[in-house]
Design goal:
The chain is of the alpha+beta class. It is built from 19 helices and twelve strands. The strands form four sheets. A five-stranded mixed beta sheet has the order 1-2-8-5-3, with helices on one face. Strand 6 and strand 7 form a beta hairpin. About 35% of the residues are buried.
Length: about 525
């Protein structure tokens, strides 16, 4: 008995020692380590909170700000702590996300070194359990060999041949939305003009498209899963700057009870979609060539076969990322073209010249050069992902910096996309012509554009997103013109992706053809 007590005391002492190292010794040692290298940051380190308290105050104040609609310098609103601390301490600075040290990296060459590493030296950071509940423990969260295997399984679903087949389904979903606009115009506005809230329209449209093209269902059938994810998203954003203590995700607090409830709803909806596919296929060895079918294909046996839980987690990932990125891209593109009506007309002329009133096919889409340029510029100014994070898995030398193991490396995309060093004096202006010679030559550094990350872990769905956005914009340009409603308030906000805090009311008018 005494032997067991002694072992328990030793284990308890080791745990207390580790906690003391993390909470007290490490902050002192890390700050001293970086200070010797000329890297400083906010001096106040709060016990357990790190810099989170200051960040929370800054973000709360920033959300109250309404910007000039013609201003695209949004860093001060969506990343206020980066905006303030970079002005005080330089572009490389140290801050603390709870007990985790983070370094801000804005040098494009160092960013390339981090994101292009193939040896796992810079891993994706661990996220809070609530975030895993939202986006699933799928491709976006996996590491190492598990990620390599999963990416290999899923790659065929996003090949160009598969994407070309999807264009007709994307167009059908879009035309259904535009027909509803026409119906409302005829009934409510006598075919003159109508104010439409674009955020909600595009959220439903892109949800419908990902549901049809990748899961063989519709927004209506997956609505419960989409709505549950939206509510989860708001809960996670609200607590993102709070201290997280491991284990608290199991405590039945009001927030956790709501998260568990939404997770059950989401899983129930996804399970129905998967079981519907299982029951609808007469040939049990082939479940289709879309994303869901590829994941379910029983010919993938052995270590590559995905079980039901793994399929469910991937469905979460692609349900969320599959519509969120494109929805926000479309919102900000429509916003920019409502301000720059000259470009709206240029794009309309290009679409009419190449497509006429036909539904764009893949060949037509590849010829829409100006549409592509505008989408790239919209992504540069209003990139859905405003920052990327990695963690040093071992002590590393990065440029002239020695990075201790476990240090977070934060890449503020919003700041890099507005760097005058890389983009010139008009870096905050809408200027699609900068992409006239392609994305790689748009900036003074070829890696200053981080629309879909880069390197081995770049976004698997980037071609899907761009094709979908081109189809939607082309079909809208064929049928409508639009302008910004006077009720619009310019307030970009980081809700895990870049959104319009107060929505995007747009006045649409049917074209007289």
């Amino acid at each position: 008995m005494g032997y067991l007590i002694a072992i328990a005391m030793v284990i308890f002492t080791i745990m207390i020692w580790r906690v003391c190292v993390i909470l007290f010794w490490r902050p002192y040692a890390v700050r001293k380590h970086f200070r010797k290298q000329g890297v400083t940051g906010p001096p106040c380190y709060s016990f357990l909170h790190g810099s989170l308290h200051d960040m929370k105050i800054m973000m709360k104040d920033a959300r109250k700000m309404i910007m000039d609609k013609h201003s695209h310098d949004i860093t001060q609103r969506v990343l206020p702590h980066y905006h303030i601390w970079s002005a005080l301490y330089g572009e490389r600075f140290l801050y603390w996300y709870g007990t985790v040290p983070r370094i801000c990296i804005t040098d494009a060459e160092l960013v390339k070194e981090i994101l292009s590493n193939k040896f796992g030296f810079y891993e994706k950071p661990k996220v809070r359990p609530s975030m895993v509940t939202l986006i699933g423990n799928g491709l976006a969260r996996l590491r190492g060999v598990d990620w390599v295997k999963r990416r290999r399984i899923l790659n065929p679903a996003f090949s160009m041949d598969k994407l070309k087949v999807m264009t007709s389904r994307m167009a059908a979903c879009t035309i259904s939305m535009l027909d509803e606009w026409k119906r409302k115009l005829a009934i409510e506005a006598k075919n003159k003009s109508l104010t439409i809230e674009m955020c909600e329209e595009f959220r439903e449209l892109t949800s419908d498209i990902i549901a049809h093209t990748s899961f063989g269902t519709s927004f209506a059938h997956g609505k419960e899963a989409f709505n549950a994810q939206t509510k989860l998203q708001h809960l996670i954003v609200a607590s993102s700057s709070d201290v997280f203590i491991p284990g608290t995700q199991y405590v039945p607090t009001r927030t956790n009870l709501e998260i568990w409830k939404l997770d059950r709803k989401m899983k129930k909806s996804l399970k129905c979609i998967i079981e519907s596919r299982l029951n609808s296929q007469s040939d049990s060895s082939f479940y289709g060539d879309d994303l869901l079918g590829i994941m379910m294909d029983t010919k993938k046996d052995g270590p590559n076969k995905l079980n039901m839980n793994e399929i469910m987690e991937e469905c979460k990932t692609f349900f969320f990322t599959g519509h969120e990125t494109t929805s926000n891209l479309l919102v900000w593109t429509v916003f920019l073209l409502s301000l720059h009506t000259d470009w709206q007309e240029k794009l309309r002329q290009e679409v009419m010249q190449i497509c006429g009133m036909e539904i764009p096919d893949p060949d037509m889409l590849s010829k829409l050069k100006m549409v592509n340029m505008v989408l790239l510029e919209a992504l540069r100014l209003y990139c859905p992902a405003i920052e990327l994070g990695r963690v040093a898995s071992k002590d590393m030398k990065l440029g002239d910096l020695m990075i201790p193991r476990g240090t977070g490396l934060m890449i503020p995309i919003t700041m890099i996309h507005r760097s005058k060093e890389y983009w010139g004096e008009d870096s905050n202006d809408f200027n699609p012509m900068r992409f006239i010679n392609g994305a790689s030559k748009a900036a003074k550094h070829p890696n200053a554009l981080l629309l879909f990350s880069m390197g081995p872990r770049n976004c698997i769905g980037q071609n899907f997103t761009m094709m979908e956005a081109k189809i939607v914009m082309a079909l809208i340009l064929q049928r409508f013109s639009w302008s910004l409603s006077p009720d619009y308030q310019h307030a970009p906000v980081n809700n895990l992706s870049l959104q319009a805090q107060h929505g995007l009311p747009i006045i649409v008018k049917p074209l007289q053809l």
